[in-house]
Design goal:
Largest sheet: 2 strands, parallel
Radius of gyration: 17 Å
Strand order of the largest sheet: 1-4
Shape: globular
Low-confidence stretches: 1-37
Mean pLDDT: 79
Order of helices and strands: HHHHEHEEEEEH
Helix content: 40-55%
Length: about 170
């Protein structure tokens, strides 16, 4: 959940300002890669543990956020269909208390930018993503509608689930 992640990051940044973002990024890369890794120092292990606990606690909400994002038909090409998804994201960021700017760098193709100001004076973190997904080719070849998320076991099927929409939900 964005708010939990922000609170978790804020708590971690207080441990060692300026260093937590690198360690947090390291922890996230471990989550995505799922690969064996070298031994880490106790601070990194503690940061990783807090991050994993926050993710476990927010799992159901993150899955629902991802399902909501998948439902937006944002295939590109044709493009120009991102506005409803961007407005939805802007609304979520506003509910989290962020300063939000929704603007069109290209006509009909808005970007949503949210700023959550910290209080610690440390380094900033930018979480960047996109809502458009690759065009749907050979739609008949899909077992499920690419914009209707389906969960089978622990796997969600839908356009964007293994690309940026999953990262946006995790932010």
């Amino acid at each position: 959940r964005w708010s939990d992640a922000a609170r978790t990051y804020g708590a971690l940044a207080a441990v060692r300002p300026g260093d937590a973002s690198v360690r947090l990024r390291h922890g996230v890369s471990l989550l995505w890669a799922g690969a064996a890794r070298e031994a880490v120092d106790p601070l990194t292990a503690a940061v990783e543990q807090k991050l994993l606990q926050a993710l476990d606690a927010a799992q159901a909400e993150v899955v629902e956020l991802l399902a909501s994002l998948v439902r937006f038909e944002t295939d590109n090409p044709p493009g120009g269909n991102e506005a409803p998804a961007q407005r939805w994201i802007a609304d979520r960021m506003e509910k989290l208390g962020m300063e939000v700017d929704l603007f069109d760098p290209l006509p009909g193709r808005p970007n949503a930018v949210g700023v959550s100001r910290g209080a610690g004076g440390g380094r900033s973190v930018i979480l960047n993503g996109h809502v458009d997904v690759a065009e749907i080719r050979q739609r008949a070849q899909w077992q499920h509608d690419p914009f209707k998320p389906v969960i089978e076991g622990r796997t969600m099927y839908g356009r964007g689930t293994s690309d940026m929409k999953s990262a946006l939900a995790a932010y």
